[in-house]
Each structure stands twice: as C-alpha cells, then as structure tokens.
Design brief:
Helix 3 packs antiparallel against helix 4. The protein starts with a strand and ends in a 7-residue tail after the last helix. It contains 13 helices and 22 strands. Strands 1, 2, 3, 4, 5, 6 and 17 form a 7-stranded mixed β-sheet that branches. A 5-stranded parallel β-sheet has the order 8-15-9-10-11. Flavin-adenine dinucleotide (FAD) binds next to helix 1, strand 2, helix 2, helix 3 and strand 4.
Length: about 475
C-alpha cells in the first residue's frame, strides 16, 4: 500500500462528531488523520440524515402550505412532482456541504484516509480501502463511528420495497401507499415528506403517542394536522408480520386488545431506532470496552477506559443528535490537546422537523411527573399570536417550566412553524440560569413567533391574563 501513516490525533469516522473533532484538533496545532469509509465526508447527518431530510421536508411544506392558500383566496394547480429533479436538488444541497468539508479538511492539513478502519492495537488502526490495507498509528484517537438503522428479523429487509431512512431519502419511487413503522422523529419526518409528495401514508406506533419523547400536549397540534393528511396514525399497535408478495407488502397489525388485521402497502419504511457501530471496529484490540449493545462508555471528558482514546457522538449513547456529537467532538479534541474542558452542557434540545415542528429542551412535564419534580408552568397558545395568525399557522403552543423555588427556567417546549429555531432561546435561558422575569422583561420584536416565549413567561408571571 501507500505505507504507514502517523497522526498525533487520529479520528475514526467523519460525521458531525468526527469532522468537528478533527478540525478542532488541527486548529489546536495537532497533526490529524481522519479515517472515513465513504468517499464523501459528513457521516449520516450530511449524507443520509439531517440535511437531505430537511431539504425534502422543505419541499413537502411548500406543497401543503400552497394547497392551504386556497382557503385564503389564492389557488394553484395540483403539484406535479418530478422525483428525479427533486432528488438531484437534494443531492446538490448535500454535495455542496460535503464538498465544503473536504475543502476545510484540506485547508487545515487534515489527512483524509478512505477505507474501513479497525483497531489492531492500542496505538494502531488498519484501514482497508480500494488500494489495500494501510496501517495508521496514533498517539491519541477519537472514535466517532456513529450508528446505523435497526433492522428487524421478521421483516423482509432484502425486498427493495422495504427501506430504512437511507433508502427512503432516495424517493425511488414515490409509492401510492406507504407504511411508516415507528412514529418517532425520523419516522414522522419521512411520513411528512412522502405525504407532501403525494403518497397515502400510514404511520404505526407501539406507544400511545407519536414522538414519544415529547409531552402529549405538545404533540397534539401535529397529530391533529397530520391525522387529516395521512391515511392513518395507528397508536398502541404493533406490526407482527410482513409478507412480501407480488401485489405488495402484506402487513399484519396487532392492536392493544390483541386484535389483528392485515393491509397491503407498496412501500414500507422501518424507523424503529438506531444502533451504534461500536461493535464493528475491533475496539477490544485497543482495550476499549464496548457494551453488549455496541455503545462505548466515556467520562465527562469523552475519555474511554483507555485514557488516550476518546469517543463521541452516536457511538457513546443517547440522544443520537448531530449537535450533541459536535459539542462532544470539541470537548474531546480540546481535552486531547491538554486543555481543561469537560462536557458540562445542562441541556440538549430535541427537534422534530415535522409540519408543525415540535421542539423541547430540558425537563418535560412527563419527566417531571415521573420523577416527582415540582414545577410551575407558563403556556401560551399561538391562537393569540398575531404573527402565527398572519402566517395562517396558529395551531402552535409555547410552554415553559419553572423551578417553584426561584422561578428559574428548567424546561420548555414549542410546537409550531420554526419551533426548532425558537427553542434555542429557552436553551440559552436554562444554560444561563435565567428566570421568568428575565424572559418576560426582555423586549422581543413584534410581531414574531419569538414573542410566544416572552408571552409564556408573562402568562406565568400573571402580567398578561386576558389574552385567552
Ligand atoms: P455519524 O454521522 O453516524 O458518522 C459516522 C461516520 O463514521 C460515518 O460516515 C461512517 O461511514 C464512518 N465510520 C463508521 N465506522 C467506520 C469505520 N470502521 N471505518 C471508517 N469509517 C467508519 N440529528 C440531528 O441533530 N438533527 C436532525 O435533523 C437529524 N436528522 C436525522 C435524519 C435521519 C434520516 C437520520 C438517520 C438521522 C438524523 N439525525 C439528526 C441524527 C444524526 O444524523 C446523528 O446524530 C449524527 O450523524 C451522529 O454523528 P456522528 O458523528 O456520531 O456519527
């Protein structure tokens, strides 16, 4: 091969965690090698996750809002979807970002090695690519190997009509009928996409609500809107069998009473969770402990049980989110460079980029109740927001939770258009220890959706009482 290569810091995996760690380490003056099995940098998030899904969700939202304008006096013809062109646009967005990353790696003299990396010892990784196997040695290593979609043994995943999120993003084809198995964030986002593009979509979820991590009251506006657009949302229902036949996928459902029924679909997305890649890198050869489920345990400085090897992102555990991976990547690179740094974020926001969006951060009411934590709340319904009404999207809600001792913000949730952007203010409030008065007395621009955070704090303080 091309001979041995040495990196002071070697990063395994180029997703949001890996590229962030590699760039930070290089900026701190280290000689960095970044190992990635695919030709394109950016991992799941850029290639087959966050970014392509958001491009398609944008398209779906434009379609649904355009349709709804007919209620307000402007009508358009029914949309004509050119799946090839839409796919090319989405791939172009991805390409712009992944190409940008390659440029940034070059600028920083980060050596990118393409191939599948596996540990061969505590200071070495063998990288197998097209040109053979190359030995990469390191002083320190940061594992950022990410995760992949869970497949279920009783489902015929070999059939091209059965896809995970990666296949679903290909839009090949947009079917007439589709089943989405799993009403979590990824499943419900993809259901929103396919519905917007014209498919009749059924979502099936085992729990008693969609987006199981979010509070029920926050999910309600989304459920209500999408119930009308989707073929069905089946809660407390399991899929127990899938038979691939020539006329479609014959799916057997079992509801909470144990009653079964069968329905046929043209396509099926399995979105039942993601599993970490920790078990596939021969970590034991480096002495790095991996759990039975494939996670790598780390301390507050992202160190594994082997002090010169760090791990970050999806491979270290929940929540499996890009912004968590990025934050951990910076911590790992800085600790590796000898800086005093630790992961000490108070909160990590969660967002479903559905239509409307559902976002939450810190404590949820469900968690508070389960853990016996006392709280006060301020709730502002968007039906009283001038901006939400002008946008013709007044189904949203903004909710803040406060510590009864000192009125500090301890949690918040927003449902509505742009909720994912709006939730950052609540995250900042929690990080800074802001209280209800801080949010109520901060002048927010009018008319904006951001005012709903201001109003929710005022509702709690009792300074606005007559809006509802
Ligand atoms: P990954 O992005 O998984 O990257 C790991 C990289 O390591 C991959 O490129 C892989 O090829 C490489 N790799 C693994 N093993 C090896 C090896 N042995 N040798 C060489 N290379 C290897 N998160 C959000 O925050 N917001 C969103 O909107 C969002 N949307 C999503 C939508 C979808 C459809 C999916 C599937 C996920 C979404 N996520 C979202 C989750 C997000 O993509 C992940 O949390 C994030 O990508 C994790 O980053 P990471 O760096 O840990 O790993």
């Amino acid at each position: 091969g091309e001979g041995d290569l040495h990196g002071e810091v070697v990063v395994l995996g180029s997703g949001p965690g890996g590229y962030t760690a590699a760039f930070r380490a290089a900026d701190l003056g280290r000689k960095v090698v970044l190992i990635e099995r695919y030709a394109s940098l950016g991992g799941v998030c850029l290639n087959v996750g966050c970014i392509p899904s958001k491009a398609l969700l944008h398209a779906a939202r434009v379609v649904s809002e355009t349709e709804e304008m007919s209620d307000h006096g402007i009508s358009f013809a029914a949309p004509e979807v050119d799946a090839d062109k839409l796919r090319r646009w989405k791939d172009g967005v991805v390409g712009q970002l992944t190409g940008g990353l390659a440029g940034l790696a070059k600028q920083r003299n980060v050596t990118v090695v393409q191939g599948e990396g596996r540990f061969t010892g505590p200071n070495a990784i063998a990288v197998t690519g097209e040109g053979g196997t190359r030995n990469v040695t390191f002083d320190q290593c940061i594992i950022a190997a990410g995760s992949q979609a869970v497949k279920l043994s009783f489902i015929p995943h070999d059939d091209p009509r059965v896809v995970t999120s990666t296949g679903a993003l290909e839009l090949d084809p947009i079917p007439e009928t589709m089943l989405v198995l799993g009403g979590g964030i990824i499943g419900f986002e993809m259901a929103t996409v396919y519905q917007g593009l014209g498919a009749r979509v059924t979502v099936v979820e085992m729990m008693d609500q969609i987006l199981p991590g979010a509070d029920k009251d926050m999910v309600k506006p989304l459920h209500k809107r999408m119930e009308k657009r989707l073929a069905a949302i089946r809660l407390k229902t399991k899929v127990t069998a899938v038979e691939a036949k020539s006329d479609g996928l014959h799916v057997t459902f079992e509801d909470e009473k144990g009653d079964t029924s069968t329905e046929t679909f043209d396509k099926m997305l399995v979105a039942v969770g993601r599993t970490p890649n920790g078990g596939k890198i021969d970590a034991e050869r480096a002495g790095v402990a991996v759990t039975d489920r494939g996670f790598i345990e780390v301390d507050h400085q992202q160190r594994t049980n082997v002090p010169h090897i760090f791990a970050i992102g999806d491979v270290v555990g929940q929540p499996m989110l890009a912004h968590k991976a990025v934050h951990e990547g910076k911590v790992a690179a800085e600790v590796a460079a000898g800086e005093k740094r630790a992961f000490d974020a108070r909160v990590i926001p969660s967002v479903a980029y559905t239509d409307p969006e559902v976002a939450w951060v810190g404590l949820t009411e469900a968690q508070a109740k389960a853990q016996g934590i006392k709280y006060h709340k301020g709730v502002f319904p968007w039906a009283a927001s001038g901006r939400a009404l002008s946008n013709s999207r007044s189904e949203g809600v903004t909710k803040l939770l406060f510590d009864p001792e000192d009125d500090r913000v301890i949690g918040g949730a927003i449902t509505g258009t742009s909720a994912g952007d709006l939730i950052s203010e609540v995250a900042l409030a929690i990080e800074m220890g802001a209280d209800a008065t801080d949010l109520a007395h901060t002048i927010h621009p009018h008319p904006t959706l951001s005012e709903t955070v201001n109003f929710a704090a005022e509702m709690f303080e009792g300074t606005i009482t007559d809006l509802m």
